Amino acid sequence: MSGLDAIAGIGADRRRGGYSRHLFDDAEQQLREWFVEQAEKRGLSVETDVNTNIWAWWGPPGPGAVVTGSHLDSVPGGGAFDGPLGVVSALEAVDLLRERGFRPRTPLAVVVFAEEEGGRFGVPCLGSRLMTGTINADHARNLRDPDGRTLAEALRAFGADPARIGRDDTALDRIDTVVELHVEQGKGLVDWGHPVAVADSILGHGRWRFRFHGQGNHAGATPIDDRNDPMVPAAQLVLAARRTAAGTPDGRATVGRLVTNPGGTNVIASAVDVHLDARAPRGARDMVQELTGQAREFAAQEGCRVEVVEESFGDTVHFDPALRDRLRGVLDDVPALPTGAGHDAGILAAEKPTAMLFVRNPTGISHAPEEHATAGDCEEGSHALARVLADLAG
Ligand code: HGY
Ligand code: MN
Ligand code: MN
Ligand code: MN
After folding, report:
1. How is the cofactor bound, in the record's words (predicted)?
2. Does 116 carry a binding-site annotation?
3. For 2-203+316-393, which CATH class?
4. How do residues 103-158 score in pLDDT, each as one tens digit?
5. pTM of the prediction?
6. Which of 21, 72, 116 has the most ligand 1 atoms within 8 A of CB, as the residue to mutate?
7. What is the Å distance from ligand 1's center to 366 Cα?
8. What ligand 1 atom has the least distance to the C-alpha of 277?
9. Domain ranges of the chain
10. Ligand 3 center–CA 237 separation, angstroms
């Protein structure tokens, strides 16, 4: 896949393996520049919206637009395909359509959504949530990254005006239909023996921060029965999360990020943040409510206290069945698969007819360096996207 080869190496994470590309960091800015260059090379007109999503237009921006694209940022140590494949495939689909002499009847846009992974400010799909107003702009401005910088400060440093972020009706009014292509995050297509599928649903998911407060102290000078060590209830919560998810139909709970304060090996922590990602078909709040009760007990047993903050939430998304089946018709009846992974398409589906295409991932692994798609399947994906765009914008 020429496009992916062109950006391979940008944001390569030597320590973690894989890629780390987060909002406005050097790697993400290089990818933004690369995308603008690729779009302009294709004669697409490029604009960055008030929420720093980038739009590349084939034809004048206007109502009735068919929109495709994805994101360029990654999780820490993520794979090469999650996000970029959707952007590269959209550019390749434009090339394929041009080669066939296709001219869109409607405006057609390739979009790069900002901070889809929430890798810097902790809220997934931040760019599409801001655009649709599904996150409060003031709350967003005050989101802090791991270095304590606010989104407002980061926007100013990027050259954007933090006062302008928020629901963008100019952008939304232009959109008629959205199709996001994405590497599959799972092995559904491997089991089907198919290179491409359409998406059926996205599992409801959210993120919560459990902050356990204890008493910082000396690791050696403090007897065990004289401690209020927040790491103890934090560890109990991690195990409880696994138990609770295992007991919830299709429930998933993950603690991939623990932040200890101050973080010294010979220091009993004064506070520990447990960042929980929880997902379930009926939304994950039921699970988290149960876990919150347990967390309070764990904390009390250790003479600690806990505060819980919901950082993001989304219900299960069922994609528009008419659009889903229209795409399946165009693509010779490819499978329609559920996914446990969130996407900007999931945010937009609340506002516009939206669909997704998946490309087979032989490892089924994502958010890790082992994520993969073969060149042949990537090509199948671009061709499928071109057929879909020709059907929708033709
Ligand atoms: O977390 C997710 O499901 C998505 O990859 N942002
Ligand atoms: Mn992802
Ligand atoms: Mn993604
Ligand atoms: Mn996505």
Report:
1. Binds 2 Zn(2+) ions per subunit.
2. no
3. alpha beta
4. 999 999 999 999 999 999 999 999 999 999 999 999 999 999 999 999 999 999 99
5. 0.97
6. 116
7. 10
8. 1
9. 2-203+316-393, 206-314
10. 28
